[in-house]
């Protein structure tokens, strides 16, 4: 067990039989809802979604998850078992893309603002620079460098409980962003590089915002 993960041995679940004993049997509908291809409703959900999270693994098995977002319809449905996701400019760490080359297994979570339900999709991904595909993903005249093409292994709608518990879309539950440091301050504090001068910090924050505007696509 990793250092810092303090669980008394008698309280740790280490076998699936122990886990299953804690819960009621899975409802039949929860098993049957998993499909191996995109039905009409799954396709409509994906076309309406402006945001997804993609989970991958490093060659050593370390988990990673990354957000992807664009206007609704940004994910191309190539056929009932294949979708394509444009890769927009980011920080060039290339975590997700490198992981896919090493291990093609991916998990996707599609989200629609205002919907408490989400769509889960598990499959195998490849990276494509097909000009015909990329040309359909152009925004403001700019093409993505590549697309993540995912073959669907299973897809299913996930229930609304998590979003309802979190009150994610409830305006009354919104938190003020200013109650925490800016992204730039957060990062620089963590690496002991934040400037002491407030004006200098403000300029760094403004620079990040300018970069957002210049490199969105």
UniProtKB/TrEMBL annotation:
Annotated signal sequence range: none
Pfam family, one: PNPOx_N
Domain of life: Bacteria
Residue runs in coiled coils: none
Domain Pyridoxamine 5'-phosphate oxidase N-terminal per the UniProt entry, residue ranges: 42-159
PANTHER family, per database record: FAD-BINDING, PUTATIVE (AFU_ORTHOLOGUE AFUA_6G07600)-RELATED
Name the UniProt record assigns to this protein: Pyridoxamine 5'-phosphate oxidase family protein
Organism listed in the record: Rhizobium glycinendophyticum
